[in-house]
TrEMBL record:
Gene3D superfamilies: RutC-like. InterPro entries: Endoribo_LPSP/chorism_mut-like, RutC-like_sf. Residues 6-142 form the Endoribonuclease L-PSP/chorismate mutase-like domain. This is RidA family protein.
Length: 152
């Protein structure tokens, strides 16, 4: 089964791949590896903003992380690499949060669970989940990725 068919079967519609908001490439391929810049969470075209533990609750944070994961997959599709994914190697999750908030791993599970849902065992990955005081554009979550590609 193709990844495109898997997305259809899961009822997942990918967003339009976001353009960079500064001087960087959203995706760089080097050999058999794809490096994806941090992706921000857009739900229904709106950026999810705020801080976990203040004005964003855990469930909204998880949905934001999932939206970041969808944007990672959208970037792969836009680059024509979706069917070449061999394995999601690593996700880096950044969670804008107040100092007392310690559930960053639960937030980033939104992206991690999505990768396993879409790619099966190849979607299981290494990961970091880090709390930060602020993210670009006041985003609540940002997720980047390192992905191994087939046929390179």
């Amino acid at each position: 089964m193709t990844i495109a068919q898997r997305l259809t079967d899961l009822g997942i519609e990918l967003p339009k791949a976001a353009a960079p908001v500064a001087s960087y490439q959203p995706l760089v391929v080097n050999g058999a590896m794809a490096y994806l810049s941090g992706q921000l969470p857009f739900i229904d075209g709106e950026l999810v903003t705020g801080k976990l533990g203040a004005d964003v609750d855990l469930e909204r944070g998880q949905a934001a992380a999932r939206a970041c994961g969808l944007m990672i997959v959208a970037q792969l599709e836009a680059a024509g690499l979706l069917e070449r994914v061999e394995r999601i190697v690593k996700l880096g999750g950044f969670v804008a949060s107040v100092p007392e908030f310690t559930d960053q791993p639960k937030v980033v599970n939104g992206a991690s669970d999505l990768m396993a849902e879409i790619f099966g065992d190849a979607g299981k990955h290494a990961r970091s989940a880090v709390g930060v005081p602020v993210l670009p554009l006041n985003a609540a979550v940002e997720v980047d990725a390192i992905i191994a590609l087939k046929g390179a």
